[in-house]
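User: I'm writing a tutorial on reading structure tokens. Could you give me a worked example: one chain, its sequence, then its tokens, then a sentence or two explaining what the tokens reveal?
Assistant: Sure. Here is the example chain.
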Amino acid sequence: MRLFQSADVLVLTGLTKSQLREWTGRGRRELLHPDVEPDGPGRHALFSWQTVLVLRVLLVLHRDFAAEVGAWAPAAQQLRGRLEHLPFFNLWRLRAVFPSTTHVILTENIAEVGAGGIVVPLEPHLEALATQLSLPRPDQLPLFPTMAVTR
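And here are its predicted structure tokens:
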């Protein structure tokens, strides 16, 4: 599994340094914890793609819906937990539906959710991560098979 340093997370999420520090730092809001905590001088916090995805979703809630991110910490942590064992390619058609600040539903069919809530499609966020990770879209087949080249 590839882990990202803070500088990469800033590029992938669009967060500012202070937002990332505030949302993931020790002794601050701690909405989400880094996957690998910094441990002493010269040791950086490291983030998995799942955590980066949740940070991107939180930024959408904050920027587009003027949500106070501190209130959304339980839903963000629940989303992070649900992403833990799901393969990257299985998420493309899913949407994160937030019926409240404490609950999240991952679904393809919004109609099955019922009461409603804030809906955040995951595809644009996965597209950004796939580009960084050099992964093809799930509906895109490789153009040429891999082959060895010798001189």
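What the tokens reveal: The radius of gyration is 17 Å. The chain is about 35% helix and 15% strand.
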